[in-house]
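Today's session is about reading a structure prediction critically. Students often jump straight to the picture, but the first step is always the sequence itself: look for stretches that repeat, for charged clusters, for runs of hydrophobic residues. Only then move on to the predicted structure, which in these notes is written as discrete structure tokens rather than atom positions. Here is the chain we will use throughout the hour.
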Amino acid sequence: MPDSDDDIPISFDDDEEDRMERLLDDTEYDTELGVEMAKDAQRVAAGELSEAEFYRQYHEDVLEEFGEDDREISGLLDDAGGDGFADRLSGLADDEGLSRREVMKKGGAAAVALGLFASVDSETAAAQEGDEGEGTRYGMTINLNNCDGCLACVVACNEEHGTSRGANWMYVFTYEDEDQGDENFLVRPCQHCTDSPCTKVCPVGARHTREQDGLVLTDYDICIGCRYCEVSCPYGVNYFQWGEPDVPDSEIDDDHQYDERGRWVGSRPPKGVMGKCTFCVDRQDGQMGEDKIGTTACEEACAMDAIHFGDMNDPESAPNQHLREYREQQENDQSYPNRKEHTVSTFKLMEERGTDPNVHYIGNEPSPHAEQVEGPVTYEDAGIVDNRKEEVLDNGAMANTEGEEA
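Below is the predicted structure for this chain, in token form.
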């Protein structure tokens, strides 16, 4: 629940619900169920609904509609109960042959609350609670003051991953806003949220958070194209692959498609499957060479030094160093060395939604009154397609976009 009177519960206006319904009506699956789950998944991230209650509330409906319920369960469950939920967690061990530790990673505190195990050893407790700051957690710092709207990052992303025309995993929005000058930019990849609504609604477990580095990925082999992840995401970063991809499978090296677990999560999706920014997962797995680990195509293409990618848990990583240097210069009241007038803002997109995005921004945060305008370089000039449908930046974050429609 909201912590104070200043916390405003998440609400969804008619236009947003109409957009969700329009997207889901194009699938063979239950539209009403998808809309309600999407809204409640965002409420879970915002702390307005417990994850256990969310799971329990939709468990029977998901089973009836999809024949399974393999939604991602985080380790943050604080109350469980309900026979269906208990059966699900128990089944993890029985059907998949998982160890006690592995069940705890999937079910977290719920397993303890349900009494699935009589005791919890220290190793299991660590898996349940998650040691914040340990391990790898990939993210970005994007300095909007440095961006000049050239769209090189968008082009590089499309070329590296073989995405179809219009299915841009990166977007650069040019906008005008009150008291922010004539021209501002917002660079928007997937935010790879720590508490992602999209993973909470996927009935088959295709959309998932990779344990080793926090990347939010889609397993193309098992995705059924229900688009529930698309409508649950507040950032508008998902794309449904309607037709056969522009780049055929024969032109993509298997090493760039399958991650080190053997799951098909890289490059563009096949027909009928959801796709989005992967933070260049094949690079992070070393499949493009050791020198590419900790880099992304968009970062390499940015001549303005706006995009900084790396491990957010490493104080010396590129994104953390850039943030630290900027903040130190703020403290010293010095002008930050970039092409624009000095600004003092750092922010995360729609941070009030509780998703804990792993992309940090330096520069102006768009207000709810921001309006998109033509950029200095048009998408047509860059040889790519802009499929954005709305012209107003939603909640100071970004316009919702719809995927490639060809």
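Discussion point for the tutorial: The first helix runs from residue 14 to 24.
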